[in-house]
C-alpha cells in the first residue's frame, strides 16, 4: 500500500512541476537576498540607484519568459506595439529618480517595499512589451529614456546642492556618473545588436540569392 502511494506520488510530480518549484525557490532566494541586503545597499546612493534599481528590473525582465501563454495573450490586448509597457517603464523609472522619493524609500520601509514591487513589475511588463515593439518604437523610447537619465546624471554631477537628505553631495556625483554610464552602454549595445542583426539578414539574403542563381 505504501509503495503504491509513493509510486503514484512520483508519477504525479512531472518535470514541469519540479521546474516550477525550483524556479519559485530561486526567485524567493533572489528577492530575499535583495530585500535582506537593502540596508547595506541603500547606505550608498550609487549602490541604491545604479545597483539595486537595475537588479530589480532585470529580475522581472528575466522572469517574463516564464509567464504562461494565456497571460501573455491577455496582456497583449492592452499593449499594442509594446507602448503600454514602454510608457510604464518611463514613468516608473522617472518617479524613483526624484530625490524626495529616494529619501522616502530609504527612510520608510513601506515605500521601499513599493519601490521593490513596482520596479520588478516594470521589468516583467517590459519583457513582454519589448518583444512586441519594433525597431522604431524601441529606438524612440530607449533614446528618450537615455536622454532623461543622462540629464539627471549630469544634474547629480554638477549641482552643489544636497538633493537627497539621505546622501552626501559627493555620493550624488558618483551616482550621476553611474547613471550616465548605464544609459550610454544600453544605447550602444542596442545599436550594436541592431546593426549586427541587419548585417546578418543582408548576408543571408545574399547567400539565398546566390543559391537560387
UniProtKB/TrEMBL annotation:
Signal peptide: none annotated. Coiled coil: none annotated. The keyword S-adenosyl-L-methionine does not apply. The chain crosses the membrane at residues 21-41, 53-71, 83-102, 108-127, 139-156, 176-195. Keywords: Membrane, Transmembrane, Transmembrane helix. It comes from the Bacteria. This is DUF1404 family protein.
